């Protein structure tokens, strides 16, 4: 059964800045990093470089080390981070950091430079998360283990020939029999390309006279290459009986292009 993920901030937050607690005890990372997301384009066989700024926001010195992880999204768009080298789109073996491990005094910033060497046969977007890990000096009560925090930035490396191929497989307005329940927009999306797509959905609902009765715009979402996704969103307005049209629009990151669709529906 296809699972549909609700449009909400959880993903992206997801994807771009992720704070991971190794243990259940709630501990805030004392470092801050920027940028949260890096997108690089490279010719096959060439090198490219970038920088990440790591700042110590605490009042004590801390030691930080950079660790690369592979990642993907599960059926509900939850982040699944795995050991570097475990996925075909990994950056493992391609990226080098300078410095990888360092100490930071309170209020100080370290610029971490990295170099990525693209394979000559690169034909898909590569990606990874660089976590900057620090030991807190705290002990987890149950296990006695050191509590470690990680905060990271997402890196995408795409060949200059990469293409994002967005396709709307299906769209409808779900009208429940119980009028007390929410009406839903239900979409099926597909990225048939070899690079990720960042998109924003907005809609307007007009009645049979063309008058606007409802509109909304959602936060940015991501769909990875080769992924199909179901998306649902609530239609808050209580619509009376009649014929309507949903004017659906997709805006895409990094381009002025839009994809517009019209979905007619009727409420009895």
UniProtKB/TrEMBL annotation:
Its name, as the record gives it, is Pili assembly chaperone N-terminal domain-containing protein
Q: What lineage is this protein's organism placed in? A: Bacteria, Bacillati, Bacillota, Clostridia, Halanaerobiales
